Amino acid sequence: MSTSDYLIIGAGVNGTSIASTLISLGHTVTLLDRSSDGHVAPDGASHDLNKIVRADYTDANYCSLAKEAISRWRADPVLAKFYHEVGVLFRSSDKGQVFGGEGSAEEYVEAGVRHAHLDKDKHLEVFPAGAGERERAFKLTSDDQLASLLSGVTGGLGDGLKGMGERQTGYFNPRGGWAEANNACRALLDHAITRGVAVHVNARVVSFVYADSDVSKVTGVRTSDGRTFHADHIVLAAGAWTNDLLTALLSTSTDVAPSKWMTRPSAQCVAILRVTPSEAASLRNTPVIINFSSGFYQFEPTRVGDEWHMKIAYHSNGYLWPRPPVECNGSYPAFEDSIAAHPTGARSIGDEGTTEDVGYDMASSTIPASRLSEMLTELAQIYPSLASPNRVVSTRVCWYSDTLDENWILDRLSRHPAAQGRGDNVWVITGDSGHAYKFLPIIGDLFATIAGLQDNERDWDLTRFTFEHQAKLHRDKSEGKKIESADSNRFDGGKEGENARARL
């Protein structure tokens, strides 16, 4: 029986980054994924055209982490070619309280600029030799600034880019942009494979393997086709599939409702549009644009085969249905699959003990039929000529793994109250909350630090990445206390129709 030092379940951003770090530290690593090629499955969040990369978090811990991650994106010999530092443009629109005082869009903008300029993080922002430093973030106060940033765009700019400093506010951070999500994740895993990571395909994990003499000691896992894999340490990096996986793995040893794993999946909305080569050329190197009052965001076009595709999406509280599928069939659900997946007689949101939204009370049930139309209306505010339903190539669901405060979980399974001390050698890595991908170059280091494999030289606050941290939040919420988000982009989340937490 062969045994690895580490057995990783899941080849998304977390699993891939951790595998890359562990193999570089000299450990033997085996990685399993549901997919047919061993890389991130087609329905996984990391299997995407692009993801936003930015560092101006409201939370100091993530702000520092992200600035170091971006420096690695710039310089890493594997990842650099997949990173596009075109900048990120935040705009408020004219909705809600735009100017003046606590909770306003202006307050959020000024905080974003301030965090981008933190002196304590200057040493983390490193640029390739000869490239020179990029300009720092700055507040947008006039339409002329927007016209300059988007000067090459043909076809006209929409009304959503007008009235800056008068009807709306915003800022631009040149030190950010986007990454080719699927391409970068695959490339990093391919590189890890050349260094010794063993990858096994079509590996849907269904149960733990326990030591004969100690049922609390996990020695490996078994897949749906009967294969067994053994390791000294097991890392569950299953993203939005975490709840179902943990429930299945511990079904014979403990009784716990799926909603009590302190994370739950939410379905988010993505649409892909087709643009012409000339349109793509005019939009080349334009910034990522985020409407932080609604959570709508868009990228410059990306070449896919012989076509140019443009991703638009909402980043919001999400939807409970459809759920992440157990089987990997090589595709992902479209928006219309949401209502079809909603079970007849499903309980209402927040109904104690009956839905995944217990304790969260945020997600709606199913994706509304009008969602695509709403996305195109948002796009028309920026690039009117592109906002046609005839351009839509596909819609897809992107699943997040949410926690109450958007902090991730990187902790031993034995520390979860429901595990009753079992699984001290099993690590649970989850709770991305929609903002983990940008940390692909550094999540492995964070795990190695938490696991005691390397010193915490950066003085990261590691207490927030624990089950105990999340358990306390759930206790606080049940007592009516306010939960502070690790990075809430809202400026007035209490109003109907406005994004409660835009977690990018």
Protein traits:
22% helix; alpha/beta; nine-stranded mixed sheet; 22 strands; FAD/NAD(P)-binding domain; 504 residues
Low-confidence stretches: 344-355, 490-504
Structural class: alpha/beta
How many whole angstroms does the radius of gyration measure?
A: 22 Å
- CATH class descriptor name of the domain at 3-47 and 183-262 and 404-478: Alpha Beta
Q: How many distinct helices?
A: 11
Shape: globular
Please, what is the average pLDDT? 88
Level of helix content? 10-25%
CATH homologous group name of the domain at 3-47 and 183-262 and 404-478: FAD/NAD(P)-binding domain
Query: If classified by CATH, what would the architecture of the domain at 3-47 and 183-262 and 404-478 be?
Result: 3-Layer(bba) Sandwich
- The termini sit apart by 43 Å
* Proportion of beta-strand residues: 15-25%
Report the CATH topology name of the domain at 3-47 and 183-262 and 404-478.
FAD/NAD(P)-binding domain
Main sheet summary: 9 strands, mixed
**Number of DSSP strands?**
22
